[in-house]
Amino acid sequence: MAHVATLILLFPLGGFLFILVNGRNMNERQIGVVGTGAVAASFVLAIITFVLLLHHATREVTVNLFSWITVGSLHVPAALLVDPLSITMCLFVTGISALIHLYSTGYMHGERDFRKFFLYLNLFVFSMLLLVLANNLVLTFVGWEGVGLCSYWLVSYYFDRDSAASAGKKAFIYNRIGDVGMLIAMFLLFSRLHTLTYLGIFSKAGTLSPTIATLTVLALLLAATGKSAQIPLFNWLPDAMEGPTPVSALIHAATMVTAGVYLLVRMSPVLALSSSGRMTIAVIGGVTAFVAATIATSQKDIKKVLAFSTVSQIGYMVLAVGVGAYGAAIFLMISHAFFKALLFLGSGSVIHSLNGEQDMRKMGGLAKYLPLTFPTFLIGWLTISGIPPFAGFWSKGDVLTNVFEHNKPLWVLGVATAILTGYYMSRLFVLTFRGTERFREETHGHDPHESPWVMTAPLVVLAALSIVGGVLDLPWVHHDSLGGFLTPTFGYVAAGGHASTLAQYGLAAVDVAAAVIGLLAAFTIWRDISSSTKYEIPFLEHVWHWDDAYDAVIGRPLTEAAQFSDDVIEPRVIDGAITGVAVSVRRSGEGLRKVQSGFVRHYALATVLGLAVVLVYLVARVA
Amino acid sequence: MHSSIWLTLLIVVPIAGALGAALTQKVEGRAYVVAVATSVVEMVLALVVACLYNDHIAKAQTFDFATRHVLSAPFGLAYDVALDGISLLMVVLTALVVLLSLLGARDRRQEPAFVAWLLLLTSFTMGSFLSHDLLEFFIFFELTLVPCYFVISQWGGKERSKAALKFFIYTFTGSAFLLIGILYLAFAHQHQYPGTALTFSYSALSGTAMSHGTAVWLFIAFAIAFAVKAPIWPLHTWSPITYAEAPTAGSIEMSALLAKLGTYGLLRFAVGLFPLALPTMRPVILTLAVIGILYGSMVACATPDLKRFVAYSSLAQMGFITVGVMSGSTIGTVGAVLLMFNHGVITIGFFLIIGFIEQRRGSILIRDFRGLQGPAPIMAALFTVVMLASIGLPGLSGFVSEYLILIGTFATHSWWAVVATFGVVAAAVYLLWAYQRVFHGKAEGPNATIADATPKEQWVLVPVVLLIVVLGVFPKPVLDRITPSVHQLIEHVAPAGVNK
């Protein structure tokens, strides 16, 4: 199994290196085949590893590759940990990635940097797999930063567009702020436990003091808010929509942005030690889910709606982690990967058909022109809204049931978010596919065209997965389910048992009611776009002025401080003080009055002469 | 125990090369060939030494290749060289810097003199890193000023004489404190052991008994000289103008190499000789270093030209190194030594690429550039690799060293480590912003037609990129050589029972 698990990683890395070295001599088709093939092979290997793990005695296999960093008591191996959690992540990451690679061969056709796109995409998959397969925090951090770097490159893919360049930079820097949290968590754990491997940490975690445990959990939460776009670091994600749409689907919806949730779930034995830490996580998740959903109701750009929707859905996952429902968090993560990738790729297909238009005010009535995109998107829409029997109903229901048992106020917030979700997604659906046709200007009068098969095939697969994804973890199945498979890797499972069957039905009814209310509201309001723009609230459209606030409080003052330092503090204060000391010393020494720049030359000459004398002396001595 | 002849060769070969280059005044280009050949020989010598000093030796006896010849007993003058894991890395860096400066930043004006100065500088720097005697170290340390001064003042930019003077006065004043400190220490040692000859031997002087107050004052005297050289905030204001005005090769020598003399000296001599001063001085120097990290990063955002930009980014990086050096932890100090090397390699990369751009455009002002990634994708890619290593991206060299520094320091001085960790964010801010301004956007005018890196330019950067990647992925051989030496030093200066 060790070799197979290693190969999961090596295939995308191989694809990256192959395209890096040979890419200039390859045409689009060959690059597409290598790039997609590498990831597809990885997916197959992940399935094999999964099967092997199922039949393995202990479902916890460490694969040692080589010794990476070893100094004193610090040992950081390059080693993998294959367990139910990591293999589950591998399966959906490689599966979705393979589909999106295939889609990209069509979507990116004819782009100037087609080669570079696949280069970055393969490197991304490698980094993401490293992140989830690593057996220690430092190696996870390699993948963690690697995915951030690929995200930076892919967001600023159209680098000659200033907005894209700035968005890429913003994504990287926000992630870096989160990274400080991850670094400090590692420092805290290493200084107390002298190990950074997951299994080592878990076996010794009990010795952590409550304060250190809470600090560690909060540091991990900071890391998660950066990578997973949660409050207070969520506002890089909407800007990241500057990247090509497949990137938004893969990195900024299905995989990378869930890394923060993965990290928290992976560290669940440490989370178990701090109830205040978990409470903070739950509140951050719940509030983010709600805030992002409000923002999504008033966006005009189809991708921005989906971006805020992603922030909101990840908020649900974080909320689930906060109440100890790790299995529910992963369940939602996977089903979200299905339906959000579907929605993004669908929106990409829409954008493609309208020659790049992303403004929903210039869409409408597209249903009849896009015979495959429309029905698949419809499934995606119903799934995310939480309509049974699609996957979203089961996974979101799983999260909300768990929240209900632990924290009633957050449950209310979660249900409110569900209403908003139904509303903003239906608004998007209505504006895009129904109503009057408002796109003729963009298509120069032509009818929009459906995308090629490489783009629609992934839509069909993802739609199918969205329909049946719920079977991964149905509420009445306990053993052969995703939750049952994952549970051994969690350090702490929500106590109190499951809600009664009756309560579960009641909660499910509430979920459905919430979705239907949102749906109906949107259909009522957005039937006629000309009279409904008043429901786009400027405060929400401007993201609660979050960016402006950061700019006013942090961005601008720091920029001004930097400029002031360069203009005044450097030349006048620091250099001035030191030169001042030098000048006053010189003035006080009358003998050095005539010393000017010539002094240096003389000194230098004297030094060289001195050296010569010494050399001569040495030679004379030896001789 | 290996023969000291290898170390002597490392010091003598560049002097011979410099003489050879200077004697070829008449034939155009000959001096360059001689210089490159010399630096190749030097590189080979350094690699031979690196192979001889394998990890078994590193573990058994940290100092190897040692010899001591007293040249003049009354003056305490001696030729005393030895090499341990720390100096080994610096030796390799010295050889690498001169080779790549010659290959990548050739300056054809008065070439024989130019290359001769570079080779002399190499010899003096080698001497400094190999000295196991304080007076000998001081002589070499001072001698490095001479070639630097001439390289800046003869081959520099518009304000070269101002820059050269500033550089000289700063470093010369710093050295004065060092000399006083060394003399005081040696006489104190002689006073303690009446009847012995005056000696500046490192091993002898490290056993000098002294009061806490004396130790603090001597530490300060040493630290001033090294703080100027590194530079450590606030003694850094010579460096931006000097790096900007020096010719590319000079900027590389000073920032990639000579700066390391500062942190190396701080570790070997200031920390190594005055353990009693450390409890008092650690918080002071750590604070200055952390200020340097944040302040350097901040000014790097606002500074108008690329070379000054590297100067301020170096101030931040040298801050990290200083944090590690002062951490009192083996892990942190190993990180610092590794970062001295890694920062050297990264800075070579930065200055070479900036040099290539300057050659094409005749400017290093950031506002003159835009969108270079379009017409020059390879140049942009190379710059990206160097930049990412400097940001500390895991998988590349900068990360390993920075991570070791921070995690090591956290165990001994948590708060400084936490503040320094924010320097990791700051590095991303100033580097990505600079990258965006120079390489992103739409190229117009002369920027649109700028030539991409030539094959020769690419080849010069191959070793830089390789070292960045290899030391990021597989730093073990290097770490195995540094760790025992650092461990011994830290054990020696730490009071018994302190947990490192």
What share of residues of chain A is helical? over 70%
Tell me the structural class of chain A.
Answer: mainly alpha
Number of helices of chain B: 20
Instruction: Please describe the biggest sheet of chain B, giving its number of strands, its sense, and whether it closes into a barrel.
Output: 2 strands, antiparallel
> Could you give a short account of the major beta sheet of chain A?
2 strands, antiparallel
Average pLDDT, all residues of chain A: 88
| Percentage of β-strand residues of chain B | under 5%
Widest sheet, order of strands of chain A: 1-2
| Sequence of secondary-structure elements of chain B | HHHEEHHHHHHHHHHHHHHHHH
Which two chains share the most extensive interface?
A-B, 62 and 75 residues
Helix and strand element order of chain A? HHEEHHHHHHHHHHHHHHHHHHHHHHH
Rg over C-alpha atoms of chain A, rounded to the nearest angstrom: 28 Å
What's the oligomerization state?
A: heterodimer
Low-confidence stretches of chain A: 590-597
Strand arrangement, largest sheet of chain B?
A: 1-2
List keywords for this structure.
heterodimer, A: 623 residues, mainly alpha, two-stranded antiparallel ribbon, 25 helices, globular, B: 500 residues, two-stranded antiparallel sheet, 20 helices, disordered C terminus
